[in-house]
Design goal:
It is a single chain. The protein has about 110 residues and is mainly alpha-helical. It has one domain. It has helices at about 1-20, 25-50, 55-80, 85-95, 105. The chain is flat and about 50 Å long.
Length: about 110
């Protein structure tokens, strides 16, 4: 299930990058974006596999995750929330349509 979600996220990012380039180079931007995502996923999986072999690192990560969960729980109980109206105003003021970018800018 996680792999499907991550693949969908990659497809959205590649599609957003490809939408801002000229139609003539759009197919190569999509190809190199997907190729880069696959290579990075393999690289990150191998690094993660080696890190999980370190004794105690999983325990330390679990303790850190418990601390983060505790902080989030305290915020929920205290009723702290974000100023949604200010966030929406900021998003409305930003332009979603920008100038066309080149191949290098779209792939990176």
């Amino acid at each position: 299930m996680i792999d499907v979600v991550l693949a969908g996220d990659n497809a959205i990012v590649v599609g957003l990058a490809a939408s801002r380039v000229r139609p003539e180079i759009r197919n190569s931007v999509i190809f190199w974006g997907i190729a880069g995502a696959v290579v990075l996923r393999i690289l990150f999986a191998s690094v993660t596999n080696q890190l999980l072999a370190i004794v105690g690192l999983t325990l330390a990560g679990g303790i850190l995750l418990l601390w983060v969960c505790w902080k989030m729980y305290r915020q929920v109980v205290a009723g702290e929330d974000h100023d949604i109206e200010a966030i929406e105003d900021n998003l409305d003021s930003q332009s979603t349509v920008g100038p066309a970018v080149g191949f290098g800018a779209a792939v990176t």
